[in-house]
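Dig into my protein:

:::
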Amino acid sequence: MPHHPDQAFLDEHARLLSSNLRLLSGRELLDPAVPDQEAGTTLYQARFVVLSHGIGPDPCFTYANLAAQQLFEMPWPEIVGMPSRFSAEPLARGERQRLLERVSRHGYVDDYSGVRITRSGRRFRIHKATVWNLFDSEGRRCGQAACFDQWQPLE
């Protein structure tokens, strides 16, 4: 696993995340004024958290921008490839699963709040997260993504 994603991956993933969010919700992930050739870097360096995971019975993270890496206290090689269920405490994993099923049915939600946990065990509550399905260029479901800019540390 590389220590950092390469530029081609960043650009391609930014297009995937952005186009799916726009299609499902009409919302933009990035300011439309950001040139296409800067979208990957802009999203990776954004001040808000962006994550995605693949599909399957135990989906793993496929992307985490710098804000996500800092919040979860994990660099790229640790968070990317990790089962996304580990971002929630064991008792909160049922709630997380219900969220993912709701997103699968409706395409996206923009009102998610829930508790997550960092690598060191710090807990925090996410507020008003948007979570949406990802589809590849052939229209096949290939994962889900989330973005949020509001969270609060918990005692």
Observations:
- The helical segments are 7-25, 36-44, 66-72, 76-79, 93-106.
- The beta strands are 49-53, 61-64, 108-117, 123-135, 141-148, 150-153.
- Residues 25 and 108 are 7 Å apart (CA to CA).
